[in-house]
Amino acid sequence: MNKLLITALLVFLTALGAGAFVPRWLQFMLTMAMANGLVSLGIVILMRGGVVAFGQGLMSAIGGYTAALVFNMLGIQDAILLPLLGGLMACLITAPFGPLLASYRGIFFSMLTLAMSMVGYGILVKTDSLGGSDGFNMGRVTLFGQQLADQQVSFTVYAVTLFFAVVASFLARVYFSSTRGLVTQAIRDNELRVEYMGGSVSRSMAINFWLASFLGGMGGALAVMALGHIDPNFSYWTTSGEFVFVAILAGTQSVVAIMLSSVVLEVVRSFSSSYFPNTWQLALGLFLLLVIRFLPQGLGSLRPGKKDAS
């Protein structure tokens, strides 16, 4: 545990120092990668139980809309508080669906979560008070009540996103090694045996769903803080697909691989859209096919001597 904590602290300090010297465009790209990586981390938590969620776009949208609405209507502008409120609201709104979805597996779970996301998209598009299909803007955040200069906002959002990404990754790693985390793996392998041993499959899967909701909402709020804008496309099925892409690319063996895979997605998307504006999705698909062919367990399997850990 101490070694893991020290490693997390070193990663945070190293990435924080490096972020102060990189160009602003790269700073923004890394911020978006880490924010989206948090959303995909929720999918990986569910994948370890044998299900894949195609509804994380809805969680991200709820978190983003919450942060923007709280900012504009209540005047809460703190960069630390907004992501927490976004994650909490996403968890509260979707909490009733956790026990329901916990009884489904395979394609049924995936399609139900996708349906939830698209219902949310439809509601957001038709709600004029939330900006309709165009969404609305969000202003500059503050940090502990202090106003930030123009040149400080980008780095502050980067630093806050990095902080939440490192803390969430650390806690996820601890959770994976905990009793409930190991029960989740056992559910993926043989849930009937888990029930025979006294474990509750439904409770474990519901808790994993709530954790994924919180991470999705937090990641969505951080993304909106970086973008300064929120719209219904956060909940569209293609957005959820990108989060699933990152989760599959990373695999379930490493939390670090999730953030690296999210960075890979942002890099491929940025450069492919610049040089191949009409076919960048093709490049992304080919890249994923290569990973599935040669690394079926994801990028996390490259770390030697580790299985379902990081």
Overall description:
This protein is mainly alpha-helical and 310 residues long. It has one domain (2-302). The chain contains twelve helices and two strands, in the order H-H-H-H-H-H-E-H-H-H-E-H-H-H. It has helices at residues 2-19, 24-47, 56-74, 81-94, 97-101, 106-126, 150-177, 179-196, 201-227, 237-250, 255-275, 280-294, and strands at residues 136-137, 229-230. Strands 1-2 form a two-stranded antiparallel ribbon. The radius of gyration is 19 Å and the shape is globular. The model has no long low-confidence stretch (mean pLDDT 86).
Topology summary:
Elements: H1 2-19, H2 24-47, H3 56-74, H4 81-94, H5 97-101, H6 106-126, E1 136-137, H7 150-177, H8 179-196, H9 201-227, E2 229-230, H10 237-250, H11 255-275, H12 280-294
Antiparallel strand pairs: 1-2
Helix pairs in contact: 1-7, 2-3, 2-7, 2-9, 2-10, 2-11, 3-4, 3-6, 3-9, 4-9, 7-9, 8-9, 10-11, 11-12
Main sheet: strands, sense, barrel:
2 strands, antiparallel
Q: End-to-end distance, in Å?
A: 12 Å
Strand composition percent: under 5%
Structural class by SSE content? mainly alpha
- If you compute it from the alpha carbons, what radius of gyration comes out, rounded to the nearest whole angstrom? 19 Å
Order of helices and strands: HHHHHHEHHHEHHH
What's the number of extended β-strand segments?
2
Average pLDDT taken over every residue: 86
Helical content class? over 70%
Oligomer class: single chain
In the predicted model, the low-confidence regions spanning at least 5 consecutive residues are: none
* Count of structural domains: 1
Widest sheet: strand ordering? 1-2
Determine the number of helices (DSSP H or I, runs of at least 4 residues).
12
Label the overall shape: globular
